[in-house]
Hints:
This protein is an alpha+beta fold. The protein is 21% helix and 36% strand. The protein folds into two domains: 5-60; 70-220, Glucose Permease (Domain IIA) (Distorted Sandwich). It has three helices and 16 strands. It has an eight-stranded antiparallel beta sheet.
Amino acid sequence: MKGKIKIHKEGHTILLISGIVLLLATFCAAVIFKNIEVYYITGAVSIAILCAFAFFFRIPTRKFYDNDNQIIAPADGRIVVIEEVQEGEYFGDKRIQVSIFMSPANVHVNRNPISGVVRYQKYHPGKYLVAWHPKSSEKNERNTLVIEHEDGLEILVRQIAGKLARKIRWYLNEGDEVQQNAELGFIKFGSRVDLFLPVGTKIEVDLKQKVKGGITVIGTLPEGDN
């Protein structure tokens, strides 16, 4: 759905500070070189940098897809992993891992894949391997959330910093009640989001498929507790 594009709150301070610094740089260039061409070039570069920042922090208007029994993409990006793994941080058993790689060109808002209650939240400092590295889910800076669905099923969402992403924001804490597709956080400058789903979940996406946060269905929950 096309509509107006807003700037996310995480970008307000960066855009303000960048705007002031670039304005001063343009002014200094004009004073030092006393050349109108240098002034225009510096100004054009400054505008281009601000536009790039604004593009990164954009929030396009969307009509979200809601379904209590389905897992909706928590982020924009491309599916890079679909496999059954042993999840060790919280579950300690086998889960289906679905990973979404977010390039710097993607929208970087992270959203709740289901509605429910946050049962676990933990931030881990770490390394900054490239986001598609197999060990990034375990070694990189990351934030883990577990949301319990109303039927008792739990889903783990892990925000992972990448080579460029050096700041993870999360807005949820243990005990919070959350709504599907509401914001759970934001990762700056290229990153990855992992989902760990109950075995038996019907996966609705394929490897290398592009997905949109709040719109693409990742999977359908199995019936009963797992």
